[in-house]
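Quick note —
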Amino acid sequence: MKLVVGLGNPGREYENTRHNVGFDVIDHLADSVCTNVNKIKFKGLVGEFLYEGEKIILLKPSTFMNLSGVSVREAKEFYKLNVEDIIVVYDDIAIDVGRIRIRPSGSDGGHNGIKNIIYQLNNDKFPRVRVGIGVPKADLVSHVLGKFTPEERKIVDEVIKVSSDAVLEIIKNGVQSAMNKFNGYSALK
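Predicted structure written out below.
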């Protein structure tokens, strides 16, 4: 069993913002496997499907970004998962728009959602798919809570599809395989 968590903030005002690309990847993944992420559980929205004979739980925490770990911990404890069976997808300002970066573990990199997950799990050994949202040109908060330009949105829509594929690759063949296949990816032609 795997738990795939997409980070974002609940509410219409945050839809399609840079900070919500984790939610966008979960939504795309759910659509691609014909499931819904609409059950309220673990202080979030949950969906599930079978992939390669394995049960996959999709989770979009409703706790707001800075408390994402509460939702993740509840799901982990309920399903009695190892931390390595949790895949987290989130935005990263250190990566250009159009790129993703997969890692098997690591620090929070200044991302408050990841910081809270590490704190709640008391562990940083979970795989993650970091989706580039670009370096802020001005204020960090207005950047991450802002929307992509129309040109960026086209690129990000492609990256969301690729990130969804990367999650499935992690599930099927492991983190190293996904890193080899996707870490050089760029939607910028």
